[in-house]
Write a structure and sequence with these properties.
With 128 residues, the chain is mainly alpha-helical. Helix content is 65%, strand content 8%. The protein starts with 9 loop residues before the first helix and ends with a helix.
Length: 128
Amino acid sequence: MTDEIVKFDPRQFAEQLKDKIRLEIAQFLPEDEWKRLIEDEVKAFIEGRWEKEGYYSQDRGRYYPSGLRLAVTSVMEVQTKKITEDYMRQYQNYGGQVSDKVDGVIRDNLEGLVKAALGPFLQRVFNQ
């Protein structure tokens, strides 16, 4: 499997799916009916849908995301969690400690940090 991202082409996907399934079961359906069924299924997989739940015409109802969106979202959630945990591990040791990297940044910039954080407050105190 490659890590390269390829643009999704629903028509190509539909054609590939049609050919694969047709070899197995679709030989009993007319071509037009088969094509319509495949297009409907691909559309349902790619697009979400709204189902009306209320009595009022302005009520759009409930949105159900597509199968594709659910699949992509679940993969993205796992990846985002992993990236975030890796990032946090670089800058923080759990238990209230800071990493060596953060400790070095603080030590190198302590004078400027103190001036920026406390300078305006202390200046007001001394001016009173």
